[in-house]
Amino acid sequence: MSKLSEEQIQQIARRVAENLGYTPPSVPSSPGQAAPAAPTTPAAARPAYHGDGIFDTIDEAVQAAEDAFNQFSQLPLEQRDKIIAEIRKDMLEHAELLAREAHRETGLGRVESKIAKNRLVTTKTP
């Protein structure tokens, strides 16, 4: 199994969003360009987004995650269920690749154990 490129990951994310009838906000494509923030975030508190989930500080990354959670929480339960089902489907499809990449990055554990763990948490976590 080969490693997914950033472009392939983005295509999968777009496909999932389209399948759910969701149009995500535009994400900046060049470093240093400010990302759209959730309506709950005052302009002065918006994190500087550099693409690929990279922020200037951990606090900005945490703020962006909180904003995303707040936006997700506002979606109807049926739409959230569909999003989670699509994530589970993709996680199961890529359980082995994700396990190998986690092992390669950290050097911890055994790939076989990580594959089993990925499948377990994907199918058994409520």
Characterize the structure shown.
The model is unreliable at 26-41 (pLDDT under 50). The protein is mainly α and 126 residues long. The protein has five helices and no strands.
Binned, the helix content reads 55-70%
Largest sheet: none
**How many DSSP E strands?**
0
**Any idea what the radius of gyration is?**
16 Å
The secondary-structure class comes to mainly alpha
Q: What is the succession of H and E elements?
A: HHHHH
Number of helices: 5
Ranges with pLDDT <50 over ≥5 residues? Answer: 26-41
What share of residues are in beta strands? Answer: under 5%
What do the pLDDT scores average to? 79
Amino-to-carboxy terminus distance? 28 Å
3D shape: globular
Summarize the structure.
This protein is an all-alpha fold.
Which helices and strands, and how do they pair?
Elements: H1 6-19, H2 58-73, H3 77-93, H4 95-106, H5 111-124
Helix pairs in contact: 3-5, 4-5
Descriptive keywords:
126 residues, mainly alpha
